[in-house]
User: Which sequence fits this backbone?
């Protein structure tokens, strides 16, 4: 179990990039660690622990996305006063984060694992349980789309993500 500790920074980094939210990322990492502890006997000693942990995290993230689509909508005016302003960040970092969030989730996952987590194509394929060729094509599409979004006018890059309905909507 001590082997897991060395992977915590990369798990948190990947979770933060997936969710776009520090609190949601912490929850995802915690859920991943809980599942890893429960399923520890299923991990085969000698196999890639890092890839196994990332696979657990990816599946948990997908499950959370599926269940989030069935959550009831909140009245934005009721929660608006309790929201805090985000910490200031550079415009480029904000634009990159928003552009990453606009990528389809399958492309974003591949891009983050290969670039941010420095996994090779075979490891990424194992984590996402897809063929290596699919990893390569999704990565190519993700890079091209990210390039488009980063060079698009600011209002295009700053619009809402294409990954489904917004979590908050104004209700009358």
Assistant:
């Amino acid at each position: 179990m001590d082997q897991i500790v060395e992977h915590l920074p990369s798990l948190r980094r990947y979770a933060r990039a997936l969710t776009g939210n520090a609190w949601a990322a912490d929850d995802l990492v915690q859920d991943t660690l809980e599942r890893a502890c429960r399923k520890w006997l299923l991990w085969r000693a000698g196999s890639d622990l890092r890839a196994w942990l990332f696979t657990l995290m990816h599946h948990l993230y997908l499950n959370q996305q599926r269940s989030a689509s069935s959550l009831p909508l909140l009245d934005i005016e009721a929660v608006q006063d309790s929201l805090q302003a985000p910490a200031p960040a550079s415009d480029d970092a904000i634009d990159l984060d928003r552009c990453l969030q606009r990528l389809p989730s399958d492309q974003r996952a591949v891009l983050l694992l290969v670039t941010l987590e420095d996994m090779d194509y075979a490891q990424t394929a194992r984590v996402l349980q897809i063929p290596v060729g699919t990893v390569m094509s999704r990565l190519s599409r993700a890079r091209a789309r990210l390039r488009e979004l980063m060079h698009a006018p600011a209002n295009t890059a700053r619009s809402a993500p294409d990954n489904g309905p917004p979590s908050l909507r104004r209700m009358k």
Notes: Residues 114 and 120 are 6 Å apart (CA to CA). Strands lie at 74-75, 168-169.
